[in-house]
Amino acid sequence: MQKTIITVQDLYKNYGNFEAVKGISFDVKEGEIFGLLGPNGAGKSTTLEIIETLRDKASGKITVDGLDLDISPNEIKKIIGVQLQTSGYYPGLNLVELIHLFAGLYNEHVDPMQLLDSVNLRDKAKNKFKELSGGQKQRFSIATTLINKPKIIFLDEPTTGLDPQARRNLWDLIRDIRSKGTTVIITTHYMDEAEVLCDRVAIIDSGKIIALSTPDQLIDDLVATGFERPKEVKQANLEDVFIHLTGKHLREE
Ligand SMILES: Nc1ncnc2c1ncn2[C@@H]1O[C@H](COP(=O)(O)OP(=O)(O)OP(=O)(O)O)[C@@H](O)[C@H]1O
């Protein structure tokens, strides 16, 4: 049995009179990639930010690695990795300097080149954040979540706006991080991404979880209702063409 690392029980959150999260409960297992899916405004980011200790909840109980969020938020902060908003990267510093800065804030010793290597950014060590492409920015921002050697990282739409290769490259990076034992919680609007990447997904709609299982099981359940997808006439799609023509491998994005 996999250990449970996050428990969310009956979580509620309102912004004034508006109820954004309406009684959400779920568990995340240690070492899994857990996806939160749902339409715009469903309450995904709100839920993540509450678990990340960045936002207050109205009610509910949250435990992260045995720590109660109401009692030990600072202990929780130490074992999680959260992506910064891009505005958080001091414009005057290069990537190595930024890593030194963040490592200092966490009181951690980190080898910047090793960390940059792990996200394929060694070549950009002396560049500023604003000089990176979209995919490179995402990889750097994921690298910064690893500085405090967290048990869990939270990725909010990490592949939005990336080209097909950069997305695949990021999937490999996320799988690689998980293979080292880190639990990953991710939100995404790309169902193909959730299907290949996530061990389990929760689908949230209007502040409630309406389904939670493995992607395979959710698909099987739908098929069992008699649902049938219109037959694909072609053996490939335009994304296949794009990847075939431009190559699968990491390139200078
Ligand atoms: N600071 C805030 N003040 C008021 N309402 C907010 C605030 N933050 C979020 N909301 C509202 O709460 C609801 C849930 O927002 P949230 O950002 O959690 O959704 P989401 O599922 O992450 O959406 P998206 O996919 O668009 O990122 C939305 O209706 C949003 O307008």
UniProtKB/TrEMBL annotation:
Keyword Nucleus set for record: no
Record carries keyword Flavoprotein: no
GO MF entries: ATP binding
Transmembrane segments: none
SMART domains in UniProt: AAA
ABC transporter domain: residues covered: 6-231
Entry keyword set: ATP-binding, Nucleotide-binding, Transport
Record's protein name: ABC transporter ATP-binding protein
Gene source species: Danxiaibacter flavus
